[in-house]
Amino acid sequence: MKQFLANKQILLGVTGGIAAYKSADLVRRLREVGAEVRVVMTDHAKEFITPLTMQAVSGNPVHEDLFDLKAEAAMGHIELARWADAILVAPATADFMARLLKGEANDLLTTLCLAAKAPIALAPAMNQGMWKNTLTQNNVQALREKGIHILGPSEGSQACGDVGPGRMLEPLDIVDRLAQIFVSGSLAGKHVVITAGPTHEAIDPVRFISNASSGKMGYALAEAAVEAGARVTLISGPVSLSKPARMKVIDVVSAQDMFAAVMAEMQECDIFLSVAAVADYRCKTTASQKIAKTAEKLTLELERNPDILANVAKLSPRPFVIGFAAETEDLEKKAQAKLMNKNLDMIIANQVGEGVGIGSEENAVTVLWKDGKQEFAKMSKQKLARELIKFIGSFFNKIN
Ligand code: PMT
């Protein structure tokens, strides 16, 4: 379960309770499972643990004040709210929960919670009498109804000497419970086949025709589909990314290899996502030895590769078929044409330019289908992949 936190950006809010001493360990545990952590501390939290400690364990500067010009210049509070894949407040005091419920924005942490679109999880920690109080219980109930995740608390002996419910969950339990938030389950039980990366079309034993696809978009979609509960087969062209866990990975080199691998997986495929930048042409003949530099001119004769996506769309029965279209001009028009010509269920129009699209860390796309479209603004490929999979999952579930 904890693997679902790998590469997630977690904003950890620390409020003023004695359990704040465990927040440093919590940061360590989150980082152990691959999450990046930024810490926001309330003034009262700093009575229990120092910002220096939290900075040292998180490896990032600690955010403390809404009106700190230096911090705002480095990463403003709205940017910080957008950065978060989830906000975790641990410990969350009774006072913090009451203020959050009222929609107050009188310190940095409450402001971030109001501004963020990411899920919010609270790990309450307080005296057992405060926890049992109906005012607190009503607040907790109302926060749950607003979709806020309440993790714990556990029962046991408390710092004040009381025994009962109100102890903050142990850091490892919080990490486990937080990870569950990222298992959306919208594709539970579905087989999703994804192609990614470029293909290499051999010219001779040491040279090939290819393109700048890094595989990042396809790999991120494969990870996001796993998180959504799908069984994923990733058919990957040659890339320098590490092999992802929790899915079947089939490595291929050429478009013809990719075609064969895709067709072999089509028996039981629910969704086919064709993210690969497949070479349209291959050399008609491949030299068996390295071509020597003797002639002034060299002409390569190319022939068409099979169109994998169009062939999948011709199958009967066929999966839900989604193509990608990376274009440098007339993006929507060209993507629409591919949607129609290849008889696809959906196409993801991918602008290629400075810092977006092929080879880059970020991407911006427009999803098009027969009678609609949805835009996704520029963001990291990981974040975009999660949003796309959420969108595709709900679209697919509506029509099935
Ligand atoms: O790998 P990254 O660096 O992260 O970049 C991601 C990406 C920009 C490559 C990706 O998001 C993307 O847009 N992939 C499609 C690339 C493309 O331009 O495809 P195309 O227009 O040549 O083909 C349209 C569709 O047909 C694609 O879904 C493609 O996978 C598919 N196709 C194309 C040719 C072919 N012979 N077989 C195919 O299946």
Overview of this structure, please?
This protein has 400 residues and is α/β, with parallel strands linked by helices. The protein has two domains: 2-181, Flavin prenyltransferase-like (Rossmann fold, 3-Layer(aba) Sandwich); 191-399, Rossmann fold (3-Layer(aba) Sandwich). The protein is 34% helix and 25% strand. The chain contains 14 helices and 19 strands. The chain has helices at 23-32, 51-58, 69-74, 77-83, 94-102, 108-115, 128-132, 134-145, 171-181, 216-227, 255-264, 308-313, 331-341, 381-399, and strands at 9-14, 36-41, 86-92, 120-124, 149-150, 154-157, 163-167, 191-196, 201-204, 207-209, 231-236, 248-251, 271-274, 281-283, 302-304, 320-327, 346-351, 362-369, 372-380. The two termini are 28 Å apart. The mean pLDDT is 94. The structure holds ligand PMT. The site of ligand PMT has 28 residues, from helix 10, helix 12 and strand 16.
Question: Short description, anyone?
Answer:
This protein has helices spanning 23-32, 51-58, 69-74, 77-83, 94-102, 108-115, 128-132, 134-145, 171-181, 216-227, 255-264, 308-313, 331-341, 381-399; strands at residues 9-14, 36-41, 86-92, 120-124, 149-150, 154-157, 163-167, 191-196, 201-204, 207-209, 231-236, 248-251, 271-274, 281-283, 302-304, 320-327, 346-351, 362-369, 372-380. By secondary structure, it is α/β, with parallel strands linked by helices.
In the sheet with the most strands, the strands line up as: 12-11-8-13-16-17-18-19
Helix share bin: 25-40%
| Ligand species | ligand PMT
Instruction: Compute the number of structural domains.
Output: 2
CATH topology of the largest domain: Rossmann fold
Q: What structural class do helix, strand and pairing data support? A: alpha/beta
How large, in whole angstroms, is the Cα Rg? 25 Å
Mean pLDDT: 94
**Global shape:** elongated
> Which band does the percent of strand residues land in?
15-25%
Distance between the termini: 28 Å
